[in-house]
């Protein structure tokens, strides 16, 4: 059977938990870092190439179909992340729904209560937060990509999160970029109208036009395949017209509040290492034999930072 | 309720058949072309701004859930398109399946018959075709975007199809780009191993690394929401492990072979007009009040060329 490419997610490959582009094994000999495929590079990784996210930064969204694991980014949106932690501890989202799925764009979840109707109480969480669209570049370890894109002065990664920055003319601002799997906080017209109760996750072509127009708070590490297949809503903006079409959320908890034996062990490839640079290069110029013309380029949102189940032992 | 943006597909808006980004109506006054929103521009369009695709270039894929409408691009892959027409006339795909869905990448359909087992007969279609990865730029009306991307010397549109070209140093080559909804012909290791029987459609972040590595043959005009929600296959590359998970294809026909009263009337916004330039500008710099920081940029694959049901009368 013919395939569009050797863009593989091997069923036997524990290292490729997410749909990492290019988990295919190349037949080419590994003569130098630059000629190894992504999978060969990951196979050669050491424990120090991986980091284990802080359980206080992980959200588990449990659906009937399985668990979505989200990593929060307090370095980018500290007030929103603190509020989301409070909301999760209070069980805010338990029993609420995913109430919107717009094709090639986002899914959204939270409290769909209509205007004028009292919403679900938010307990000790704050109703009002400042906008956190970007932050000072100072104090962030930004690992730049070799390629530019048209959306920002520079693109790269901060602790595994796709990010962009503008340090021209002393601007000195950095922000989380809208890529597949990015988690953001829905807002109304006022920039400071988000409080983390209504959250969206990008399921379509990277909507980078949203960057610096809304507060981004994290990214999905595992379980995108549970969200990306939700039927598209037929109402405006992909909202479901019939409440029965909404997908129930059993519960959303912080991993740190979950008993150890119920946690989902995950590790994320570090993005500040020579190995990561080699992985990026292996995506910029595909080395497996299928490709006849390596692109010599990659966009920020084409890079899926590898996530794995930690090896046994 | 809070929204990630005014990225609207109005239920009452016949002009927005596809999930066009930015069908929201702006509250801003229309003082000049450059300040109008996408929707205001479309509302002001004239019949001459739209084209009706040739029925000989339209494929109807009928699924249990509805119809997917695909426009073929004979200008880019004449031999593949001719073969696909022959295959459709012979009913080749009728009763076959969508047998692969890889998250954030592609769905694929055709004859999943395994290696070594005789496949479904292809009738008078050709088993062997040349690779048609790109073509000469000469003779194509390429309408360039104002923005560059890192994937090609120039990005733009040809008759509504996202395209890229390299005319530097006399290269003079143009190709259909891999964006959301692009249709391509799966191949094996040999560049000339595709014949159009196995086709894939992009459902994830634009995999531009495939450009000029495989033959692209068209794009989906309507019905992406039927394909993008197919459960992801859990086998390698998103192939379904259980044949029962495959989605049956009732039939694929050329619109020109379908009785007029069973056709799906569609028009596509022309991409070689001042109106289209204004639409692009309205996407580069969002004018509705929700945005506090227009991007001043857009990538090729962020532009969904509007498709509509022709207005009555």
UniProtKB/TrEMBL annotation, chains A, B:
Gene3D superfamilies on file: Cyclophilin-like (2.40.100.10)
Signal peptide start-end: 1-26
Domain of life: Bacteria
Keywords associated with the record: Isomerase, Rotamase, Signal
Enzyme class: isomerase
E.C. number(s) listed in UniProt: 5.2.1.8
A molecular-function term among this protein's GO annotations: peptidyl-prolyl cis-trans isomerase activity
Domain PPIase cyclophilin-type: 66-254
This protein's record includes keyword Zinc-finger: no
Protein name according to UniProt: peptidylprolyl isomerase
